């Protein structure tokens, strides 16, 4: 079988003065309050730092999804038995959770084409290499796509004959507000054929103290990850952020029901970004939001699925009932 990587990212998607990266930084730092999108964190180094977060014992998306997938892998494989399957993963990272399903599909001799889609080149190549090492003798085809989600989906050969199962794991959708989620899911629906499937994870609303503890780890991995945003801006846009003058903190906002991760300026300071030919003022204790992670009720999730053209076929929970993975069918 074949194991390959295709790079689809346009040159304009790469960092530089006129890139989306630069525009996002300029727009975000000009807002009140200052806010930057979390996708700015995910280059090769940022992905490595995030991987360390997933290794924390109490980080819900990774721990709960691994538990759920190990429990339901046979159900999933049985559902797609006997027909060729294209398994697409949005934001695949190291692909460890997808491998749980891949092993089960291979054990049942499924005709499987796995396509991890991720914006990080190094992570995608590492994943494809690890799959080739582990499954070279199996009936598995792998095509890694270095692209954003919809670039990757558009690049999939689609004659309508092979059913698709899209994995969207890690509660990644929860980084978007409810209106943003709706827009994204409608775009995802439009990229699929009727009777294609999406398997998606949601971190449910729970006791706020548990949420706080999960995002303020004593090891400082969330701090390292969020403060890396400043390093990346320094490197890509010739800025002079001093990380020693910022601290990271995550808090739960009851009004938005989101964990909001922020880096906070500990003093009044001016940051110069040469590539933008612009300076930005920070007051003492001014916040810069770097991430949001929304928590939802099941009623909200069901409403969202129906509104965006999906029917909920199955749902699975972790042992504490604080996390749910749902299987949606495109109608």
UniProtKB/TrEMBL annotation:
<dbReference type="InterPro" id="IPR019257">
    <property type="entry name" value="MeTrfase_dom"/>
</dbReference>
<dbReference type="GO" id="GO:0032259">
    <property type="term" value="P:methylation"/>
</dbReference>
<dbReference type="Pfam" id="PF10017">
    <property type="entry name" value="Methyltransf_33"/>
</dbReference>
<keyword id="KW-0489">Methyltransferase</keyword>
<dbReference type="InterPro" id="IPR029063">
    <property type="entry name" value="SAM-dependent_MTases_sf"/>
</dbReference>
<dbReference type="InterPro" id="IPR051128">
    <property type="entry name" value="EgtD_Methyltrsf_superfamily"/>
</dbReference>
<feature type="domain" description="Histidine-specific methyltransferase SAM-dependent">
    <location>
        <begin position="22"/>
        <end position="329"/>
    </location>
</feature>
<dbReference type="InterPro" id="IPR017804">
    <property type="entry name" value="MeTrfase_EgtD-like"/>
</dbReference>
<protein>
    <submittedName>
        <fullName>L-histidine N(Alpha)-methyltransferase</fullName>
    </submittedName>
</protein>
<keyword id="KW-0808">Transferase</keyword>
<dbReference type="GO" id="GO:0008168">
    <property type="term" value="F:methyltransferase activity"/>
</dbReference>
